[in-house]
Amino acid sequence: MTLNRREFLAATAALAAFPTLASAGKPAAFPTDFLWGASTSAYQIEGALDADGRGPSVWDSFTAQGHIQDGSNAARACEHYTRYRQDVALMKAAHFNAYRFSIAWPRIQPTGTGPANAKGLDFYDRLVDELLKAGIRPLACLYHWDMPQALQDQGGWQSRAMTGPFADYARLVTARLGDRVKDWMMLNEPNVVAIFGHGLSEHAPGLGLGESGVLRALHHQNLAQGAALRAIRAEHGDCRLGTVTSVQPCRPETPSDADRAAAIRWDAVWNRVTVDGLLRGAIPDVLAEQMAPIVQPGDLDAIKFPVDLLGINYYSPNTMRHAAGQMFDVGWGRAPTERFTAMGWPVQPDGLYEVLMEFKNLYGNPATFVAENGAAYDDVVSSDGQIHDAQRVRFLADHVAEVRRALADGAHVTGYLAWSLLDNFEWAFGLSKRFGLVRVDYDTQKRIPKDSYRWFADFIKQARGI
User: Fold this and answer.
1) pTM of the entire structure?
2) Domain boundaries, the chain
3) What are the residues whose beta carbons fall under 8 Å from the beta carbon of 436, sequence distance 6 or more?
């Protein structure tokens, strides 16, 4: 599916007004071993929710309660569970050398505890073998938001008791796949899980517990992560271990003292509890008093761990304002940009450079990779049957340029993975928002590579020198 030079130029002619193809930097400027690819999550693409012994998750329950905005569900999603070979072929055709996917906890342990469900592990066995056959490095994430409902019924992330089950689950999965999968991410975006699923009720499990719910969920995910990291390290010394979190600069809407203080508070909640906990074994000073009843002796030592690889999800900075009476007295402000995605998120590529340099300057320059970066737009199938998603191409090119700038300034960045390979079930938005490089017709399950897919494939080909 790679275009020749003439076809590539024709496909990107619509971008004439956007001088951003060149802005991505020369592909040859990236290290030859740089990771290029995309990320997905199990619940958003697999479908087959009642297949082969899989148990219910919190997102199954949340969906059944009528919380999905377009009334859809993930019962089919992208049918990746049965079409994974086709999807790996798309990755190979785009010259990917890496792919981050998540493993569905309810497939492995239908109730969140007990012996492994062999058929669930068999699926990931097949997927991993297909990736390796295609020359693609599998980066597996153990938890991308789909907690088994049976564990939620026992308290979920509001309970310290989740630490043991998560570590046991990590042992079961790595015992089966650790001979071939050498890169393991523990969690995906624990901050988003805590804020939107526990403090608010916009995501599963929809608890709406406010500030205390957020901080408990953050801390208990940190504890579970630390236990899982140690469990895997004890049995698989040759694996590279890490996690993935959403890191966004928190900027005040105005220079006022109130807005600046609000941005600091939100930065502590959104970024620092997870990052400082893992890398420093510390709690942000601004949250120390609130978290004191939650944190027990020894917790911070249990949370801190020398990871090998840290995945960073970046979409945009957070523009914050003081909002008395809202959670943490913080509200969303208006970002200073005229570019927005179909999600209403501001497009500010410079924030990615800021994040990558922050890890260099504040955290000792650990090995990082961009684990998610992408945009939803209202894609249209043109009369030629194609999707000419010029805005997404511009988005990708602008952000790849910021990665290149960070590399040039000494940041230890090892890869860039787009979100996402496929249009998919976008959580509470259902099937209405499309992030994919590849369009999925949800009625026929036909895959249609977009112009962004072709642009990315061509860029990767040049970057890898193939």
Assistant:
1) 0.95
2) 5-464
3) 420, 421, 422, 423, 424, 450
